[in-house]
Protein: GNAT family N-acetyltransferase
Amino acid sequence: MATEPVPMRLEHLAGVLELGNRVFDVSAMPYTSWSLSSVAVHLDAQPDSCWVAEHDGRVVAFVLGSLSYDEREDWGYVEWIGVDPEHQGEGLARALLEASCQALFAAGATRVITDVEKDNESSAKLMRRSGFTDSVTVTLFIRHAPEPGPPRPPRVREDPAKARLHAAARKRHRQG
Ligand SMILES: CC(C)(COP(=O)(O)OP(=O)(O)OC[C@H]1O[C@@H](n2cnc3c(N)ncnc32)[C@H](O)[C@@H]1OP(=O)(O)O)[C@@H](O)C(=O)NCCC(=O)NCCS
Structure:
């Protein structure tokens, strides 16, 4: 079993990034913004709401929270939570989420917000079991760019020396 949640520190940065890369599909929304800088910004801005759980010295779960959501300084936001598949179902996410929410409330949050992708049932269940209730639903509509046409044939570039000769010939022709 993994250990109790501990506050995230700088030395957990690489482990958190690597675990996120494994548990999020970073090629698809809403996970495309997962990056070293997104982890670092959370740790920098609101370290007390960032927690990890370790097993044998490896990060096996994390939560990253922040204070202020949608320009509201008194709303907390839990944007990222992930648990190593080998440790899912052990209650780690609930424990980390609780630690993050308590820190956000202690820092002045009047509510904590999180967003859950509509097919992510494990995350929705985690949130409901942790006292979150469904609120506004936002659906992202996407319009793709039109298919590009067939490739244009490459432009044949004239020899620059010949081009100067032709231009001089055209000039003489016009003058005389
Ligand atoms: C969502 C996730 C963080 C849950 O982590 P976890 O440690 O397995 O969750 P917990 O063990 O703390 O379980 C919390 C609750 O959710 C439920 N739950 C968790 N995974 C579930 C699943 N796959 N199906 C149904 N319920 C699930 C648990 O039963 C538990 O409820 P309970 O207390 O009534 O038993 C984990 O599945 C994960 O990392 N998913 C991939 C990353 C992701 O989608 N993150 C969320 C978006 S940022």
User: Anything to note?
Assistant: Residues 23-24, 80-83, 88-94, 120-123, 125-126, 129 surround coenzyme A (CB under 6 Å). The chain has a mean pLDDT of 93.
